[in-house]
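Dear colleagues,

As part of the handover before I leave the project, I'm documenting each prediction I ran so the next person doesn't have to rerun anything. This entry is a single chain, and its sequence is reproduced below.
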Amino acid sequence: MLSPADLLESAADHRAEANCRDARLLKHALVYADRYHPDACPTRPGRRSYEGRERAVVLGGEGCPPIAEFAIAEFGVMLGLSPGVAGDFIGQALGLRHRFPFTWARVLAGEATPWKARRIVAECSKLSEEAARYVDKRVAPLIDSLTPYRLSKVVTAAKIHADPAGARAEAEEKASERGVFVARSTEHGTKAMYIRAAAGAIARNDATLTAIAEALKTFGDTRPVQLRRAEAVGIIADSRYTQELLAQASTHRLHHPDPASEPTPPADSGAGPTADPVACFGAGSTSGRFSLPVAQTFPLAEIAEAHRVSENGHVRGKLVLVVGSLAELEAVVQDGLDVGEAVQEDEGRLVAGPRIPLEGRCDCAGVVQGFG
């Protein structure tokens, strides 16, 4: 039995051997394509001259030699591939030799994984020969030093630099493929939806689905997050219900903060200040544990004066309106004064907040939720 170290070494050897076999298969494809060049391939048995000749097809992109069309299917039969897949394989081999010589040299030397090299050729099949050579020089040294995802990003950047017009045309072509596709329902009542849209639109929808899922959790939904996101797909179709749900969840979290989400204050060692006061201010204000002192108190009848003091920009602390009764409050609202969004309610007093129209919003005790 192999030890773990020997087992890993043997696995690496097998991978290297597999890469060598893949490289030899690419070389076989090139020899086969050369033998079936339209000017070199023999006349097929049983085929008469008046029936015409096979068409010559170019695989791999600009700069690659043609091949007789029927030869592709014969190559695929021997490898167990469809004609389309066989044509792609031969075209990628030709593209490596004629359009990506630096990458091909690294494949032959065992310094580049063949399937990664083939993927690069496939992504650049629509480039001109000159642009493909530029991408080859930029990408060849990096093939086995990057993950496939990052390598694809490097290839894309090189393509844009080498052929900006082609990159724009490709982007427009991809944009025309956008759409929303719905699959059939399963026997369990589940239906799949596949969306291909602008990245920004997908990001906004994803954020909204996450917000709805969190709102459901706020109101006691204990299901896993993906199930709540699936539930959110049905909710987001009703815009008014979505807005109301998110607003109520935000209000609930404001008045019922989760203790587990509050940061733990650092322990005081008795040796002086233990934290940056600015950081403590930010953490305290975010968690709701920091409270400004009351700077000045106004009766409801002096709301205009309170607005003037609030707007002069020199108030240090919070301004408070003392509300006598709901009737008195409604009388002030009917006079057309602007009152604002809720900031804090404390024993029937009202704390000054951002100035926005209230539009008659009152709580059950008859206290306006703030003024500006």
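Residues 269-275, 336-372 have pLDDT under 50 and may be disordered. The radius of gyration is 35 Å.

All the best with the project,
I.
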